[in-house]
Here is the input.
Amino acid sequence: ENHQEAPMGFFDKLKKITTNLFTTYTEADEAFFEELEETLILSDFGMEVAVETVEKLREKVRKEKLKSQEEVRTALREMEEALDAALPRKLVLDLSGVTFMDSSGIAVILRARQKMQLLDGGLLVRGVPPQARRVLEAAGVNRLVTIK
Here is the structure.
């Protein structure tokens, strides 16, 4: 039986990474922050998200004089919750201005679907012109995403 595991969500990835880091580092020193930043970048979080997350955590640790692993872990968890609350849960792609659809357009839609799945969100594609609709239906995209 060949089945794929569901892709790990953003916060599941972050939790796994930080759990591994906290088994290696006992305090939030510069080496810890550098390792966290590098790990986030290499884990497909993207440079901007990784740098911003680490900088905010670094700032919070300094400002609140957090020392213990548990204090830093709690601060990171609070940041995760705030970030989670701010993330979009629904993406609407309006294709009404699209004059031609090919595999590149399909790829954009499928990447958007994948990103929204990682956030436990949904994707709606609307305003699809006839040519684009035929291409999406021929490729089976309409079985994967909601098209209105």
